[in-house]
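Q: What structure does this chain adopt?
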Amino acid sequence: MPNLNRKGLESGRASLTLRGLAFSLGLLTSLGVLAAEVGEKAPSFSIVSLTSNETVSLDDFKGKVVILDFWASWCGPCLVAMPKLSALSDSLPNDKAALLAISVDSDPRRAKRFMTKMGATYDSLIDPEGDVAGIYDLPGMPTTFVIDQEGKITAQLVGFTPGDEDKLLRDVATLYDND
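A:
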């Protein structure tokens, strides 16, 4: 018979609770309740800026095309993506489009250091608990969404290789040129 001391019971309960939560989130995601999918309205959120500590909402960008990029300092493809996204962000017309980046790093200082090291020219939001990332049900890192002026997801890119920034620019320009 196993030794069930208090610590073991508490650990077991916590493990069951986490498994139950993961199962519930997985079920909701598979039912489309939480998942962000192409053709669907992008889930709204409000989180804090990494650099200014101001709260930023996706709704603040209504009427603009948004490139929503989830990244992390530990993500290999993010090393390639960040300089390319900086150049892309610099080329976007501010009145028609915006790059909205969200770091899923648990340590904001690490995320800031990474952005500085990579020469990022845009701000990022911070999602240390993964709440927004969870709502968007990210299949990998980085994951980038293109959201139209009405708030609908029109494209999704998982990972990043050189040349992906050109596809993103074409997707975004098509949307704001049709405005």
